[in-house]
Amino acid sequence: SIRSIAVIGSGLAGLTTAxxxxxxxxxVRVFEKSRGPGGRLAxxxxxxxxADIGAQYFTSRNPGFTRFLDRxxxxxxxxxxxxxxxxxxxxxxxxxxxxxxxxVGTPRMTAISRxxxxxxxxxxxxxxxxxxxxxxKWQLTGTDGQHYDGFDxxxxxxxxxxxxxxxxxxxxxxxxxxxxxxxxNILPCWAVAAHFNRSVDFPFDxxxxxxxxxxxxxxxxSKPGREDDGQWWVLHANPGWTHEHVxxxxxxxxxxxLAEFKALTGHEEAPDDWxxxxxxxxxxxxxxxxxxxxxQNTGIGLAGDWLAGGxxxxxxxxxxxxxxxxxxxxEP
Length: 332
Ligand code: FAD
What we know:
By secondary structure, the chain is an alpha/beta fold.
């Protein structure tokens, strides 16, 4: 039977859930608190282009994920990122990352979420703060006090702390408590994208240094389809360091990350432009991986990277498993 389903969040998990359920004939409406879709598949507009400030690349080990992207986002929305990937051992020597196919959205990460969102009905700029039952249907309430009525089922794809808060504020205490083991597993990350006029002379385009401050540095301009003058580098801080500096001013964050970057690469030139971004929920540390959660009695489901090992592909896996559990017709 055709159901009316609300999906909260338009990151990859929410987009995937909505597309699959919609393709099965259900009436699906997606609610997103930010201005646009994508969630942690995120790009910031910068001079002459954009920089991927969230997810850096993704893998596609499950052929179903590749089929999904090709069908719904289109093969032109992403490409392989054939770059020099390296990491630094605790002793300070550098090693190449294992060989793996790595993909990025083109010409920016959000090209994927933008393309996917064309297949769904999206209400953006709407943060859902409560779920309540009205005449045996779910009603959603937004921060603006507006109500959205008549849903048979609700899928929540917010990170665990936000999902837990929403469930608690909706009086769904048992479900909220069930997320306790997940809440601490998503760690914060300060990010800075910085522009250099001259090329940075460094043996890697993307690297994980052995540093107390930096978790990751990547030459965003080395990704396919970027047409920057000079180079945009994306610097991600370590979770522990971010935690200690979570309320610091962006200027002092940028100063610290850029000083570490200079020490790492020996690049003396100061950036002529930079943009900060603070992720309170960035990467999920692998913990308990149930795949998804679905409560048949209430009709409430949860999906997201944090239920399936973290990462972009995990978000897709989680959503795919949830829609199966919700009774999607199997793929022909
Ligand atoms: P999200 O993308 O977080 O989507 C959740 C959405 O819900 C958001 O859009 C949010 O605004 C919305 N929302 C939350 N609460 C509400 C509410 N109450 N009402 C309405 N909307 C709401 N993964 C990789 O595979 N490779 C990487 O290299 C990589 N690097 C990363 C680097 C950083 C700095 C970060 C932040 C993440 C990185 N990741 C990486 C992780 C990857 O981005 C995520 O695993 C994936 O994008 C998660 O998708 P999702 O749909 O589960 O969650």
